Structure formats: structure tokens, C-alpha cells
Structure to design on (531 residues):
């Protein structure tokens, strides 16, 4: 089985800028593989190290030790990001551009040929249902529309790996359903999806495998069906069990 | 392997990403209506030079040209410094930098793109300033030394290249864009007014202090060399609406251009080194 993402003994420490303050260990000896064509859920409570791991994969943060690669290329190389699409938790796009200009800009960065570029922009704008608003400035978009333009930019290069950081965060139920449908469609096309979410019901529905992180360490990794069978409960209870949550009675 | 990989043959740093980022910087400037400053200045220049008829004295043209050129220099510095100072901090503050750097864009390409965008925008503004200034000036004096104008605009632009690179370096060192802009404005004006006199000052000092001032004289980029206002004010370089050859020596012009390119490259290199080490957390 081909590994799309490979992480070995990853350790990330944030040095405190304040004198006398200890450095913070965000990720501690993480080993992880994401296989080609699977939807992989990356779970953990807030501060578990999910976003830090994603930041390493995206080249925003350098690992203190260990290594990470995407499609066999070290994540420190910009080329490693040629075949990925990334959707951040909240949308941050140039508000003085319209959707078409934004997508054209990103398409140019991926060096998509001009003839193919316009066709690709049409496809993704139709997919996220923003075709009618393509010439409106992004600053006039609603939150849901901004999230969809984010999804469109993540798909502009027809990526083989999608990294989604809480893609349904802040969306209404219809918006969530649409994002879920898009993830399913991408899976059917053989794409690999690596995403973090706190919506465990959603993760249970769409993911093939999950990894649960807690305090920077990998607590469990496996197929969703295997975990449900092993713990004899739903994913939410599996999660709570693993992170050591005890209800106050 | 999907079709996405077929678009790429190599991923060496290339001009494509730099031009794409620069294009967005220029687009932002006119969408943010920064170029309105340019229009206001053009109106001011037109009014100032147009007032020559009111004074009914042709000698006053030189004073007005001096005032207009000072206005052009100050405005170009304000545009260069304020535009460059906000580029990287605004990208980080609005978080637009994350989706961008999640794409195959190196941090060096990002810095170079920001520089190019600001520098090109400054160039567009300069051409606008000098075009209207030249037209109005020629209509009053009936002379236009083209080559001097060309050399003046070019060296002014090269000077702004150093300024933009300096401000970009400041923007990755200082936390607040406003403090960076203020510090850079003081430094640039300091170099322009006092930079050329540092060697004279060093001669008057003895010992270690003199050596420090001398070292400073050789270390700073001499922006004052790029100020050709006197050539334009006094129409040095000939008269009449024809091409003239009595401008500044072309070797000097080329040397000054190389000097500016070297300083700009060095400052951008430092910016890249600092920015490369920056951890960016969402």
C-alpha cells in the first residue's frame, strides 16, 4: 500500500520567548502513515498537537526532530506541496479579489496552463456552487460562501491529497452536508483526504481510519470499524475513553 | 498519478510565483485606492506649475519646479514605505499567508514577489508623477531634456528599490508596521540629508569614533546619489525639445544602478534569512 503521508518520530517543541519560561512540547515522537485513497481522521482534544502536526506537513513549522514527507518528498521542500490542497479552519483569502481572480492566482502558482486554468476554475466553482458569484469581491461573501471559496482553492490543482483543518467548523447543517458530500466524492475519485475535526459523528461517517492524539502523543490509530468493534461503542465514546474523560456524576 | 503532476517538470525557484504574488500586490494597491494619492499629487503639480502665469514671472518656474520635485520625492517615499511596511504583517494578520504558503511557494519567492509588487507600483507612480511634471514644466519653459528625465526617473526608481527592500527587512524584524514605517522613514531621510556628509564628519573626529563614523559612511546605501533634482530644475543637459547628450555620464548611471541592485539584493537576502527562520503558527 502506498503511503501518501509518512511521519517518523516527529517532535515539535515551541521555545518560549519569555525569560525563564520552559519550552512547550507540542508533538512527542509521533509516527503516522496515511495510505493512498483513504479518508483519514486526525482527532484529539484542543491542544493535542493536531494543528502543529498539520503545520509541519504544510511547512509552516520546522520539526525539532524526526521527519515528515508527503508523496516521499520532505515537507521542507516547497515541491512537496505541489500535489496537495489545503483548507484552513477559518477562511483567510484576499478580500479585494473576487473568487475568479483568487482561483486564477492560485492556479498560476500551480503553473496550470492557461487553457486548462479557466476550465478548472469553472469546474471547482460549479462544484462549490459559487459559479453565480464568481465576479463578486470576496469581502461581500457570507461565511458559508467564504468557506466554499476556500474549498474551491484547495481543489484548484486537482490535488491527490487534501488536508482539511476542521472543514465544517462554523458551517450550518446544509453547509456541513455539502462539505461531507464533496469529501465522499473525492474519495470515490481515489483522492486521499487527511482531516481534523471535532465532529466525531461526521468522522465516523466519512473516515476509513483515524488517529487520536492526546498531549502530543499518538494514543490510538486504526480503522474506524475496528475501533468501534473493539470498544463496543460509538466513536465519541471511544474518543472520550482514550483521552481519559470521566463524567462527573 | 493524477493530472496535477503533469503540470510540473521542476520546482526550482522561478519567476512565475514571484510575478503572480507581485501582481496581487499591485492589484491590492489600486483596489485599496492607494493610487488616489497619485492623482491628488498630479493635480497639485498641475496647479503649482499652472500658477506661473498668475505670478507673471518666468524665473519663478525654477522655484516651483523645486517645490514640485520635493513633493514628488516625499510622496514616492511615503508610497514606498507605507506599502512595503504593511505587506508581510498584513498577510500574517489577515492569515492569507497560510493558504499561500501551503502551496508550492518558497519563502524566498514570497519575499521577492512582495518586493517586486511594491517596486513596480512605485515605478508606475513615478512615471505618472514625472509625466505630468514634465508636460507642465515643458509647457512653461519650452524645453524638455528627455535623457535627463529618463536618468532621473530610473535612478529615483532604483533608490526606491533599496528603500522597499529595507522596509521589507524591517517588517520581518519589527512587530508593528507603524513602528517599522516610522523607523525606516527616519533612517531614509537621515541617509538622504546626512549620509553624504558622514566622511567629512569622520575626518573631524579622532580615534575610534572617527573610524565608526567612517565605517558607517561606507556601510549605508547612499540614497542621496540618486537625487537628480538639480539636473531637472536647472535644465542641465541641454535645451529645446530634442534629445540631448549632456546628461550624467552613462558609466556613472550604470554604476549607480549596479550599486542599488547590490544593496537591494543584500537587503532582500537578509529578509529571506530572517523570514525563513520564522515559525508560523495558525
Amino acid at each position: 500500500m502506498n503511503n501518501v503521508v509518512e511521519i517518523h518520530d516527529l517532535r515539535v517543541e515551541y521555545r518560549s520567548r519569555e525569560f525563564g519560561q520552559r519550552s512547550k512540547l507540542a508533538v512527542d515522537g509521533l509516527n503516522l502513515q496515511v495510505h493512498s485513497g483513504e479518508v483519514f481522521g486526525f482527532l484529539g482534544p484542543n491542544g493535542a498537537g493536531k494543528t502543529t502536526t498539520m503545520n509541519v506537513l504544510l511547512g509552516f513549522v520546522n520539526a525539532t526532530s524526526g521527519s515528515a514527507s508527503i508523496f516521499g518528498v520532505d515537507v521542507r521542500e516547497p515541491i512537496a506541496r505541489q500535489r496537495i490542497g489545503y483548507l484552513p479552519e477559518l477562511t483567510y483569502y484576499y478580500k479585494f479579489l473576487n473568487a475568479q481572480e483568487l482561483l486564477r492566482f492560485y492556479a498560476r502558482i500551480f503553473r496550470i496552463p492557461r487553457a486548462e486554468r479557466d476550465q478548472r476554475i469553472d469546474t471547482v466553482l460549479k462544484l462549490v456552487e459559487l459559479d453565480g458569484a464568481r465576479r463578486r469581491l470576496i469581502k461581500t461573501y457570507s461565511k458559508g460562501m467564504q468557506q466554499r471559496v476556500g474549498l474551491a482553492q484547495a481543489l484548484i490543482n486537482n490535488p491527490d491529497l487534501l488536508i482539511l483543518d476542521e472543514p465544517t467548523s462554523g458551517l450550518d447543517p446544509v453547509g456541513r452536508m455539502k462539505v461531507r458530500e464533496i469529501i465522499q466524492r473525492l474519495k470515490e475519485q481515489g483522492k486521499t483526504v487527511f482531516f481534523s475535526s471535532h465532529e466525531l459523528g461526521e468522522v465516523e461517517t466519512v473516515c476509513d481510519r483515524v488517529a487520536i492524539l492526546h498531549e502530543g502523543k499518538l494514543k490510538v490509530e486504526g480503522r474506524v470499524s475496528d475501533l468501534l468493534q473493539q470498544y463496543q461503542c460509538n466513536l465519541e465514546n471511544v474518543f472520550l475513553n482514550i483521552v481519559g474523560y470521566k463524567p462527573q456524576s | 498519478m493524477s493530472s496535477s503532476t503533469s503540470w510540473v517538470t521542476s520546482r526550482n525557484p522561478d519567476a512565475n510565483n514571484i510575478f503572480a504574488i507581485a501582481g496581487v500586490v499591485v492589484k491590492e494597491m489600486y483596489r485599496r485606492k492607494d493610487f488616489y494619492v497619485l492623482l491628488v499629487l498630479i493635480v497639485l503639480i498641475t496647479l503649482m506649475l499652472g500658477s506661473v502665469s498668475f505670478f507673471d514671472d518666468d524665473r519663478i518656474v525654477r522655484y516651483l519646479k523645486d517645490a514640485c520635485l520635493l513633493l514628488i520625492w516625499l510622496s514616492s517615499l511615503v508610497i514606498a514605505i507605507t506599502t512595503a511596511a504593511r505587506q508581510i504583517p498584513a498577510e500574517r494578520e489577515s492569515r492569507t499567508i497560510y493558504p499561500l504558503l501551503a502551496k508550492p511557494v518558497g519563502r524566498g519567492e514570497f519575499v521577492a514577489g512582495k518586493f517586486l509588487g511594491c517596486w513596480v507600483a512605485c515605478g508606475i507612480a513615478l512615471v505618472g508623477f514625472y509625466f505630468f511634471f514634465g508636460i507642465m514644466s515643458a509647457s512653461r519653459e519650452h524645453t524638455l531634456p528627455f535623457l535627463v528625465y529618463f536618468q532621473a526617473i530610473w535612478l529615483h526608481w532604483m533608490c526606491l528599490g533599496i528603500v522597499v527592500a529595507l522596509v521589507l527587512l524591517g517588517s520581518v524584524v519589527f512587530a508593528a508596521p507603524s513602528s517599522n514605517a516610522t523607523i525606516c522613514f527616519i533612517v531614509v531621510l537621515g541617509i538622504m540629508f546626512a549620509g553624504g556628509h558622514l566622511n567629512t564628519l569622520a575626518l573631524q573626529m579622532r580615534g575610534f569614533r572617527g573610524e565608526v563614523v567612517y565605517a558607517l559612511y561606507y556601510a549605508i546605501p547612499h540614497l542621496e546619489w540618486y537625487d537628480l533634482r538639480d539636473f531637472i530644475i536647472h535644465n542641465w543637459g541641454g535645451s529645446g525639445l530634442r534629445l540631448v547628450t549632456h546628461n550624467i555620464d552613462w558609466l556613472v548611471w550604470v554604476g549607480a544602478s549596479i550599486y542599488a541592485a547590490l544593496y537591494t539584493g543584500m537587503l532582500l537576502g537578509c529578509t529571506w534569512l530572517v523570514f525563513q527562520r520564522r515559525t508560523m503558527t495558525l
User: Anything to note?
Assistant: The two ends of chain B are 31 Å apart (CA to CA).
